[in-house]
Amino acid sequence: MQNLQIGRPPPPSAAPSGPPPYLSGSVAPSVTVGSRPGPPPQTLPSRPQYQPPFTRPPPGIPNGPPSAGIPGPRFPSAASSMEPSPPAIPPQGSLPFPGSPPHGPPVNNISQPSVYPSQYSAAAAGVPMVPPSLVSGPPHSQPLMGGPLSQPYMSPPQMQQYTGPSQMQQQYTGPPQMQQQYTGPPQMQQQYTGPPQMQQQYTGPAHMQQYTGPPQMQQYPGPLQPPPISSGAPPFGSPPVWQQPRPGPGGFPMSSMVQAPPQMFGASPSSLTQRMPPVPPVMGNSPLAMAQPSTPSHVDPRQIPRPIPGSSVEFFETRQGNQANNPPSATSDFVVKDTGNCSPRLMRCTMNQVPCTGDLLSTSSMPLALMVQPLALPNPSEEPIQVVDFGESGPLRCSRCKGYINPFMKFVDQGRHFICNLCGFNNETPRDYFSNLGPDGRRRDADERPELCRGAVEFVATKEYMVRDPMPAVFFFLVDVSMNAIVTGATAAACSAISQCITDLPEGPRTMVGIATFDSAIHFYNLKRALQQPLMLVVPDIQDVYTPLHTDLIVPVAECRKHLEQLLESIPSMFESNKVVDSAFGSAIKAAFLAMKPTGGKLLVFQSVLPSIGTGSLSSRETEGRTNVSSGEKEAYKLLQPVDMTLKTMAIEFAEHQVCVDVFIITQAFVDIASVSVVPRTTGGQVYYYYPFSSLSDAAKLYNDLRWNISRPQGFEAVMRVRCSQGVQVQEYLGNFCKRIPTDIDLPGIDCDKSILVTFKHDDKFQEGTECAFQCALLYTTIYGQRRIRVSNLSLPCTSMLGNLFRAADIDTLFACLLRQAATGIQSSPLSQVREQIMNFCVNIFHSYRKFCASVSSTGQLILPESIKLLPLYTLALSKSIGLRNDALLDERSYWASHVPPLPIPLVVPWVYPRMISIHDLTLKGNNDSKLSSTLPLSAEHLSDNGIYLLENGEDCLFFIGNSVSTEILQQIFGVNSVDGIPTQFVLQQYDNTLSNALNDVVNEIRRQRSSFLRMRLCRKGDPSGMLFFSYMVEDKAPGGLSYVEFLVHIHRQIQTKME
Ligand SMILES: [Zn+2]
């Protein structure tokens, strides 16, 4: 392991004012102006007159390069219409997606007629549209390859990535660079072991006992000011003003009712200490009971539900005694043994028992939904997912519903038939798959075949699942070089990051790369080896873009690595004096798409300014947005929607051709993320946001984000479908994907960090004692070109008891539903309405519990089911989050909303309710685990003026420094003697002392857990950065809303109102 330069940006980071990192020039290609890219002649005046020759060629005229044909007219058709045109170069083998829907009929699929509209997906996900006789195909003459476990589930050698057990771990042990930069690969790998600390944090049930006893009345020492007391306070004693049924902004109590600002430090104990009556036990499951007396109410803040850190790793068997187990908290540290149901990392349900009827589900007020993260990384201690090869016949499937063979399909008739657990159809067992049944009714070979004993397996896909040869791994980089991007150092940071990441691209002949830059024109580069240096080819016509070459824009990385590095090194200096301020984002991605169209692949865009020209150009809506929000304009939410359909239409076409777009927004200004983000959202990509960009402190994060982006386990040209038992049906999919037919979603790109939420509704009843099964099938191409079907199964018991639903409720998935609902809501409804909706979500659930499951004697109490007792806290935090606050910038809110849909399960809660720990006393806390498990409630009362605190949500890491921190500690951590000496553009350093080492260890551990480098920010009391920090103190009363205690009281009040 290398010297850990924690937090340091990659070496060539450019200060905005300094010379571009590569300007030193020795390596910059020497160029004949007009023929190849190169540094601008030194003699040229640097001011207005200078236009880099390659950036502004006269329209239609090839810029210098003798280039084969840039002439616009030559390829007009490619750009002028959305129709898929024949690919310029036939990809290896068959033509991709010729004309027709890219998911055309499966090639070689003899057994399926070609009349079905989407045979591709039918084959992939198995639509029941094919008559059984047709689909079952020839007798499965191929035995399971390799026999049961011997050569088990042979993963092709290339597939080191996620198939093989051992490879898995090795591979994901961490991107190499990561290591150099911070602690490196090892962590990454561990990463996937599950966030240890988290667990500690949210171990919920453990502290149940805590609330079973009669809540003692204690002083409420918190920062709260007692709510104003009004007269006539019925059940709650002193119903504060905010308690009364006044409609706040949208029925949700907000700032208007809150008078007291939070007291930051050491608020004096409230004088209104009250006793709470004993709480009778309610239901056998010891729900948390919050007593509320009929006198002035006060709740002991130490008694109210908070995530409690735990510190040990939990071992979790998915099924025991033929019954599903309730999974551990998603944020905890656990190791899974798949004993029939898949790991909860792959799928978890809002309730671990399924209601028998739709009526029962509505009564519970909870949604029935699954969080699916089909490529989620396992813990290295877990058995990896096995690859099963059925040979030419392909995986065994139900002939009616096309569900895949799984442990819950029941073999009958001495094994000659099997009954599908999804549709109930009685299938004939293929002769070569026959096995006798044992005395227990199970197949004798069940334990030797992963598909019969494991909840998750990966099948090798046959030709039937391909419409063309599996695509190569194509990475195309598109970099903004307009004036602002250059001046702020964004271009230099992007080029540096790409250059350093090239070595992390998957190895092999199938990995291809391409690059282009853009401002008001688009510049492609011919990276072909034979050429001495990269040749720039300019596309000046941004209204009708085309690709200047049919070949050589995207070439195998092995053939062009040197050229590419050289080019990346010279780009910042080539454009050093660029005065073009316009950015043709839409046209540029369209042009890049045209180059990628024959293959598909990942398009990584580095964008720095508002797209101002060309296709899909945008206007600044920021000013408009701020005005509207502050004036209470009803339709301000429309600013969170894309401005028009231009980019969406383009994105759909990209998705059809398997192009996945990630956008890295590196900016110091408004870029209209609401509009831009529609492209990644539709193509299975994501948005990264560096604002306000600092080349000093953000370059390291950019580099690490990019590195993880290209090196993490991922797949291409994927299609996913979730099937379920008869009785329920899929209602909706939510996430980043493109959907063209009702049953399947298309994912041009899918990686280990992406999740999809799937909601269900009843269309029939279940019998008590039966099980409801869910099966997710993801057909995808690995980065090494194998076609695979990853199948995850979850079978849950059905119940007709409402109490069971609450007992088996899953707070992580439930909150994920609420979070996505809110993220969608803010784009279509006024904020006040969204706050009201999330409030109602919470109140309705607890009302149902109160009404049907709690004892009569507990009228005056707020009773929270143990399983979801943290829901109020998370709901409160959500209502104060950036997405739902009035005072956040438009782009910040858009980013927040775009971040939510693909959020992996373990990061859902921290995104809204971050983790806070003290760091000035780290050396007193023992090992890393205990350092991270000693989390603090998000309340200013836990901040001391003598302390330094770290708060992280998986994306940002804020350091708050009290006003009276000792010089010694400042010196140890920051290397300065006073707070003022710490630069605002903060980079965490490692110094040679135990405290600094401990802090760096902790930060690296968090990075490992979150798969994220984290953006470091320094927060000081009394300036805007301090305000930012305090905005996360969600338990305190603030201008944005109630305190936690008040919020509980408010919920109680709402429930009582509904009870009347
Ligand atoms: Zn079936």
Automatic annotation (TrEMBL):
Residues annotated as domain Zinc finger Sec23/Sec24-type: 395-433
Composition bias, Pro residues: 8-22, 50-65
Signal peptide: none
Residue spans of biased composition, Polar residues class: 209-219
Residue ranges annotated for the Sec23/Sec24 beta-sandwich domain, each copy included: 715-799
Domain Sec23/Sec24 helical: 810-906
Domain Sec23/Sec24 trunk: 470-710
Keyword Acetylation: no
Stored Pfam families: Gelsolin (PF00626), Sec23_BS (PF08033), Sec23_helical (PF04815), Sec23_trunk (PF04811), zf-Sec23_Sec24 (PF04810)
Stored InterPro entries: ADF-H/Gelsolin-like_dom_sf (IPR029006), Beta-sandwich_Sec23_24 (IPR012990), Gelsolin-like_dom (IPR007123), Gelsolin-like_dom_sf (IPR036180), Sec23/24_helical_dom (IPR006900), Sec23/24_helical_dom_sf (IPR036175), Sec23/24_trunk_dom (IPR006896), SEC23_SEC24_subfamily (IPR050550)
Keyword entries, A-Z: Protein transport, Transport
Family membership: Belongs to the SEC23/SEC24 family. SEC24 subfamily.
Protein name according to UniProt: Protein transport protein Sec24-like CEF
Organism: Platanthera guangdongensis
Gene: CEF
